[in-house]
Amino acid sequence: MASGEAETLQPAEEPQPGDLIEIFRAAYQHWALYLGDGYIINLTPLEEGQGASVKSVFSRKAVVRMQLLKEVVGADSYRINNKYDDNHTPLPVSDIIERAQILIGQEVSYDLLGSNCEHFVTLLRYGEGVSEQASRAIGAISLVTAAASAFSVLGIINTRSRNRPF
């Protein structure tokens, strides 16, 4: 399902093996990769047996788990979202699934900005980890840092101006 826009899951439409699944949590999106037969692969925090939580954002390690999509989604909503297909070529589905299955049960590094759940599933699907969510966060952090630096410089200039004897 190659599309630049995300597609909302309809009852008649079932995810296909290799599809990216975007799950809408309260404050963020969790990402998984559909394996087939109702199962997904995703990253979960070490200290939790099931699902993802806000705790996972602060963790440095995660576990790759195969779980039922409906259990991971719970009361949240989700959609099939192969949004990177327009500028990244998906690997063959058999390769995606094989790569995913090798990782089940493995402990992996986790970093919100550089190695998160979206990076993980896009690495499986495309061979390259991509995260729009992380890019937006890095952009926001950069903007705040630049603004703070500007205000700091302005404060120093203002202080120097006030300390001049003339």
TrEMBL record:
Organism: Danionella cerebrum
Membrane-spanning residues: 137-157
InterPro entries registered for this protein in UniProt: H-rev107_PLA/AT, LRAT_dom
GO molecular function, one term: N-acyltransferase activity
Cellular component terms (Gene Ontology): cytoplasm
Name this protein carries in UniProt: LRAT domain-containing protein
Keywords of this entry: Hydrolase, Lipid metabolism, Membrane, Transferase, Transmembrane, Transmembrane helix
Family: Belongs to the H-rev107 family.
Occurrences of domain LRAT (ranges): 20-133
Pfam families: LRAT
Any single GO BP term: N-acylphosphatidylethanolamine metabolic process
Domain of life: Eukaryota
